[in-house]
Amino acid sequence: MSQTLSQQDPAVAAAIDAELNRQASDVELIASENYVSGPVLEALGSALTNKYAEGLPGRRYYGGCEHVDTVERLARDRAKQLFGSYGANVQPHSGASANAAVYLAALKPGDTILGLDLSHGGHLTHGSPVNMSGKTYNATFYGLDPQTGRIDLDRVRDLAREHRPRMIVTGASAYARTWDWGGFRSIADEVGALLFADIAHVAGLVVTGHHPSPIGLCDYVSTTTHKTLRGPRGGLVMGTQGTMKGLNSAVFPGCQGGPLMHVIAAKAVAFAEALRPEFAAYSAQVLTNAQAMASQLLERGFSLVSDGTDNHLMLLDLSESELSGKDAEEALSRVGITTNKNTVPGERRSPFVTSGLRLGTPAMTTRGMTREDSRRVADWIADTLNGSTDEAVLARVRGEVADWCRDHPIPVNHIDWSA
Ligand SMILES: *Cc1c(COP(=O)(O)O)cnc(C)c1O
Known about the structure:
The protein contains 16 helices and 15 strands. It has about 425 residues and is α/β, with parallel strands linked by helices. The chain folds into two domains: about 40-275, Aspartate Aminotransferase, domain 2; about 280-405, Aspartate Aminotransferase, domain 1. The chain has a seven-stranded mixed β-sheet with strand order 4-10-9-8-7-5-6, with helices on both faces. A four-stranded antiparallel β-sheet has the order 11-12-15-14. Strand 8, helix 9 and strand 9 (about 220-225) form a beta-alpha-beta unit. Helix 4 (about 65-85) runs parallel beside helix 11 and helix 15 packs antiparallel against helix 16 (about 390-405). The radius of gyration is 22 Å and the shape is globular. It starts with a helix and ends in a 12-residue tail after the last helix. The structure holds pyridoxal-5'-phosphate. Pyridoxal-5'-phosphate (PLP) binds near residues 95, 96, 125 and 173.
């Protein structure tokens, strides 16, 4: 007789159930998270996890790959269509693995890279000393202009002339403004650098035309598939006619062993979803909601880094507040709103405390959040942070959050395939 997970392993099953319940009953504002569709989950939980398939479709090191070849070709072709790229490799296990492959393909140990400072919104894999990228390469950094909270390309040009990087790294985890890849390209050309765009955060906006695309301007493009793109946890790298071959060997055998074929199947499903008009409408709503949330927070007297947002996220600036980023994250968590503390440019508190709070709209938009709801969420945040010691305020907000979540279950289908 076959046993279900809850019969065979009640401890793991109960923890999964509890997590599902948490996801359903909290307002999720972590800018890098989303809710995948039922079909994406189904592909993820499939028997494809049993298969070894080192190599690329048609050129594998193992037998029995005919069906996973079909799956990987579908994922790769859909990725190329979605982004309009010359080539794509869908095997990176994560965004960090995708970036490792780009560096391995393009650089030699000790080469200089120039990326956005971690404390200004960059990512660990862009040269942080605690990451392989910072240990292997000579990492230098640009930051945000302290006055405007934006990247100042003149300053980037000065730094590029000074450091002569082999590669300029663009993209961020907590930057609310548009990337000017044309501007970076001209700087890279002037100093003879390669240009790399890590669009892990904005990929979903890029493929729907809500953020400029780096394809055609950058030598390498990487992304995660699980943030605004709303696919399974994973990575993707894209290259040009000149860089794609080296990128493929950097992924395997350079950085990874066997690809996760069940995840690649789920990527294929998610890319097909992202090619649909419903996904374009979803992305537009993500932006509308971020605008509404940002303007209501400003109206309620809060400060935002760069005073607003062009994309799916914003950074609450608490450097003048008695409440730290950590305090704010904890207060909001008590009312059922999940966020993450974040450093701000010119950070004066420790990275474990911080003076910022990152807020994003992708997950809640998947759950049906409207412009009006977004203003309400901003009010919940403002009421909670202003009244963080007032139990009556906290109880009221907690109740309203719970009501909203009950009325907006996590959807199973994101696309109407009958249309
Ligand atoms: C999230 C992110 C990554 C890393 O993705 P993982 O899948 O967590 O490894 C890399 N770069 C940027 C800019 C990111 O935001």
